[in-house]
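Subject: two folds for Thursday's group meeting

Dear M.,

Sorry for the delay on this. The cluster queue was jammed most of the week, so I only got both jobs back this morning. I'm pasting them in the order they finished. Each block is the input sequence followed by the predicted structure tokens. Could you check whether the formatting survives your parser before we put anything on slides? The first protein is the one we discussed after the seminar.
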Amino acid sequence: MHPELGFLGDLLTLFGLGVAVVLIMSRIGLPPIVGFLLTGVLCGPYGFGLISNVRDVEGLAEIGVVLLLFTVGIEFSVQQLVRMRTFLLLGGGLHVTLSLGVTFLLARIAGQPWNVSVFLGLLVALSSTAIVLRLFTDRGEIDTPHGQATIGILIFQDLCIVPMVLLTPFLSGETSSLGEIAIIVAKILLFAVAAVLAARYVFPWFLHQVVRTRKREVFLLAIILLCLGTAWVSAQIGLSLALGAFIAGLVISESDYSHQALGEILPLREVFNSLFFLSIGMLFNVRTVLESPLLVLGVFATVVLVKAAVGIGVCFGLGQSLRVAIVAGLALAQIGEFSFVLSKVGLETGLLDERLNQLFLAVAVGTMTASPALIALGPRLAALLESRLPARFVSGRRLLPSMESHRNTRLEDHVIIVGYGLNGRNLARVLGRSSIPFAVIEMNPDAVRSERKRGRSIIYGDATRPEILEHAGILRARVLVIAISDAAATRSAVALARRLNDRAHIIVRSRYLYEMEPLVVLGTNEVISEEYETSIEIFSRVLQRYLVPRDKIEQLIRDVRSDGYQAFRSVANTYGSAEALGQYVSGLTVEVYRAEPGSELEGKTLGESRIRERGGATVVAIQREDGDVIANPAVTDVIRPGDSVVLLGRAEQLAAVASLFRAAATDTKAPDAAMAVSGQVEAVRLN
């Protein structure tokens, strides 16, 4: 058998068994990392020996470490650090220092040398960002006070991994003289200066040339080149791969393309990271637990208690409530994935022997496995203590700063525009004039640059990536408008947006009529077909040349739309939102008319206006210019100039009363709202 086929067989074994084990772990509520570690144990030389070439797997695992540090650098925000400086730096610094100090003392009592004791403290001081974020996300607790406190400390710990990796050779005695230390510091400073210059002059120009090609595969290759290339240069001058990857991430994070880079690199990171945890699992010897179960259990309990106590003490000491302190402390009571990165460095430099490394692996896997139970225990333990302790020990003294992104404003109830072509620009112009908040997603780097200079909220990225939609605020958006020419990308973006936010109103521009049905099935609320709308505009203008009355043209437009969109309406009734009124009352439309100053309705009550008697439409609500909404108004409510009146009725009923809302001096041209599809109900949501 060819060696390549043997390695391919090893990968198939690892991934096949890994998928099965992770599925089982997810059923019992354990994170995927635990599944990968267990898979490595089963496949490794200390398990069933299913993998013939462990070194090749470890080589790929090194790429996983590089990508992990690279994404940490991309996600790191200097502005966020400044906003959280008190809690993040003080809380994170205290947590790392106290965890390290207590572990050092316990290791010294157990007879370990001072340098090994310090290194064990470094291993224990780090917690698992991946596990905690996954569990808090599943529980919907990311934005809670204890979630913010925990994430603040985790960010500080993630930043500590680079200096810890650099410190390890000093602890092992590989670098001891002042001259060698000075050389390493000089290399770091020179590398940092070179990275700053590259970030200022080289990387932006290079990335801009790449994104101008509008080819996703070229962009992905360029990002991988920058990541691995910077890590390789770092290793060539005697520094670590991890440091180079982290600095490369920091450089990318300052560019306009950071979110797209993160979205492209994350799938690769997950694949290679799984290999990293698989390789760690293959190093673990189960006999360590079988031969010394009491030792493993004792160290496991000590680590959990120390880290939990330190976390609770730090949070409570910084003014957080007892509940926040307990939940955050228990959430941090495990050993993290970066500790495995550090342990491999310690094993290579001789700080850890095989026996101590096996003990560390057993305890680390155990604490990770116990994380879901510890986080679930937090609220119950807090409730028990709150009922028994005096109030002054329960309530906090200080609010935690927001962990929101470093963007200047947080968009709420806004419109997301995907595509900044003619349709996107016109929509953005109208929204801006109407003071409606919006964000734009665009793949043209020149458009992104020019609009950012004008202060426009625009993001470079692909809307088929969840990271891009989430950065644009899809979870809080009211409307998503997709106006791009790529039909496949449009369908992917609709499916993703509907999965992320099932309440958003999605409007899509399509080129052809046959594209409408699959878009509606995926969750689109409204589809505007250029092919069909163009034909309507053409015959409308032809009829104008023959002096056909405007009201007759509009009636013909309504009739044609009613016939042409019949298939679309039937699909929408089958797959659309349960809130759509058209599923229950056929042929009705909801439209909004503005009462112009000088109109016939100005200053009249609903009873005096006789809107229902004149046309048959029903007034559902009135929104004042100041934003106040009168739902189900009474006959005594007065219509003021500038009021937006929500009407319910058939298209012809709405057209019959449209003239009542216009000023007396205006012509009888029907409003744009009358162009709505007959029989299709639009969900009108007022502020």
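Second protein, same layout:
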Amino acid sequence: MPCSNKLLLRKISLVFFLVFTTCIIHAQNTQNPRDLSYMTSGGKLNPLQAIMDIRHYTLALDVDIPNRSIRGSAEIDIILSKSTDTLLFDLVHLLTVTKIKVNDKAVNFLQKDDKIYISSATNFAPGKQKVFIEYGGEPPVAVRPPWNGGFTWTKDANGNPWVVINCQMEGGKIYFPCKDHPSDEPNEGVELKITVPKGLVVAGPGLLQGVTTKNDKSTYHWKTNYTISNYCVIFNVAKYRVFTKNYTTVAGNTVPMQFYLLEEDTAAAQHAFDIKERDTRVLEKYFGEYPWVKEKIGLAEVSNPGMEHQTMITYGDKFKYQKVGGQDYSANLFHEYAHEWWANKVTNKDWAHMWIQEGIATYAEALCFREMGGEEAYNQLIFAHQRSVKNRKPMVQGDEVTEAVTYAGGDIYAKGSCFMHTLRYVLGDEIFFPTLKKLATDPAYTYDNFVTTADVEQLFSKQYGKDLKPLFDFYLRTTDVLDFTVKQTAFHTWSIKQNNFFMQLPVDITTDAGTQRMVIEKDGISVTSKTPPMVDASGHYLKKILFQ
């Protein structure tokens, strides 16, 4: 799934300057201003935004359901690393800014091309700045949520209003002003003050601070103190019923499970709690304690497939399960929940490295299969992942690329999982699993600290004691697979060669005498067998084999 951000210029003082300054931006569809197919997140960070450190967002919005519009304000706390005459924020052009204040003083601004340029004749000084932006309008309507996001205005089975937001591809700017780049999250959290018609319920991130009702409207105040990705700063509105049950984490902490379900699906609540508790045990076993113990384990029912919205993942499969090892399992529920560790806690600094989030979350599904059905169930799911790899584009296509570019390859899910499976074989369980848990728990890689492919490679190489960069580069930066040739050279004698050799790797070779883990040198190896030898019969690698 994807998000959004763009790159622009240095000043704002003259529109003439804006028109003629070189910039990197997708052109808007002038025939249909509501066509947001050009929107995506990431890429090269604009210098004007590179000097801004986002600390906190407070959004206060009134949701007008009949008119499918929102109106209110965003208060943004930032720290500037140096003086500047321009502050730059992202906001979709469909929403109109009416007033901006910086440190309680009205300022001049220009809204253009999904950007807000805030200017100062005397410069904004380094240090703390508080920006207040008043705005409103009709936000984008989701085309194919959650992949092509926006607002979904619909109704539940009983005819009650149901408002769902998705914005990973387009980014938080589809409904609030922000610095929409993955390299910066609000370190001090977010507050949402969302006003809706009385009788409806707002599900949001963090903990509910309170609900105030006046006349025919209710305002829900949600707050998270954790750092959070822009695309997870969302809320959903419905006539929810709220179910709560406490969970004791692997470290002995108590955290509430809170499910926001439609009235028609309340009978599914208890079993869903059981599923969620089991899934949490599995994820904690491999990746450490649930990341948001000071807030909640949340789930909100939505009208589309789920998303990994922090402390309130969304789900839309009507609690349909498959059987794994005799137990009920939902891939939708589990995958999005695994993102609480891999995306929300361990976050890539650049969308170029999205395989870390999507690939390991997908691999987590195989680990859940392992817990429910043993190694056989694990291997079956890994085989399915291998079969779905397309290898059309590398998983890592450079640095500072957009989210749309990264997702277009399609392999960050399945091939990312296969790569983790390969690492498990190369390193062995005694090194692989503790290293994977270290990646998920060490403060150097979590919460405020973002990661890249290089960070992951260096960690695994250090724990393994050997340089794994060639293996990382081969799997992540190329579309190649291991290429083996098996050739009979004499009676009961065979040569096995890796044709695209890039480093020594262990490989299982099966002969008439059994299976042996061997290292194939650059010039190949020779084995004796009455039957043709099998290379990597258990499928630890993505590969092709030619018998001659």
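Two things I noticed about the second structure. The first helix runs from residue 15 to 20. The chain is about 25% helix and 35% strand.

Cheers,
T.
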